[in-house]
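Justification of computing resources. Each target in the renewal requires a structure prediction run like the one illustrated here; the chain below, 328 residues long, is used simply to show the kind of job we budget for.
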Amino acid sequence: MTKREVVRAVLDHKRPPYVPWHFGFTAEARQKLFDHYQSDDIMDITDNHFVLLGDDIGYFVDIGKHRFQDYFGAIWDRSIDKDIGNIEGQVLPEPTLKGYTFPDPLADLYFNNIHSLLGKYPNHFRMFEIGFSLYERAWTLRGMEALLMDFVIHPEFVHELMNAICEYNITQIRHALSFDIDAVKLGDDWGQQNGLIMGFDLNFKGEYQKYFTKEHDLVRKAMRDFVKREVVPNIDEWEENGEFPKEMYQKTGALGFLGIGYPEVCDGTSGDIFMKIVAGEELMRSTSGGFVAGIGSIDIAIPPIIRKGTNPQTPRLAQKRICQVIKL
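Resulting structure tokens:
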């Protein structure tokens, strides 16, 4: 198995031949490795399994005296912390976005090396990274202390700021998905905040909810009812047996869930990426990663046909495959 296949096996809840790994290092530790191995090829030294694409913590310009300016305009002092640094000043000195323009999310620097990296590491798991994806991006622009006060004093500005950051990230993700990648990693520390400062119900439900329409809500309810009725009562038995009945493909397909996002000519169901998210979230209520991976396996075979197939063959093969799954 290739490294990519090993990682994907783990994500599909299959037993891998070994536990895959990926090591990252601080600047000082990385330099010690380079000195020891007389090489600056971290992939060769560690035998890592991921090839990392995108920007991770971002792109920086050295402006002198251990200070670096990132793509969003924030200045980082690296005189002590050599990896990221400490924020100096405020890009947004006032609680407003007036006068500030976000950088281009589709700039070449995020994407221009993807093809070369995939060519160099064809057998690695491909992960596109977006560092400082929400809360961290907000405080790097506004300043930590000011942003925390804004949560209380200027909540409308916080929502505006978070909304702009979300739009930026989603635009970037959409373009990243046009490449042959396996995953998108959103780096941030907000996921561990669930109370006074950063709780989802307090501050972020509105930011994400705008991407979901009444149509999404109807699909969510239908999928939730289906999982509750058809899956949850049987999931323990299926887990014990190590498989679920094949007719579950037919039942799921009959509701239109298997074809979400695929062209209608291929018997697909209209729906955007957020419709797929809705279906995936509700499937996870089954509490079984194996069931979700099995039902979702159609998304492994069909996308290459849709993207790379010639016009005459694409509808025929994709339609045949989707129909085969539904009729199992």
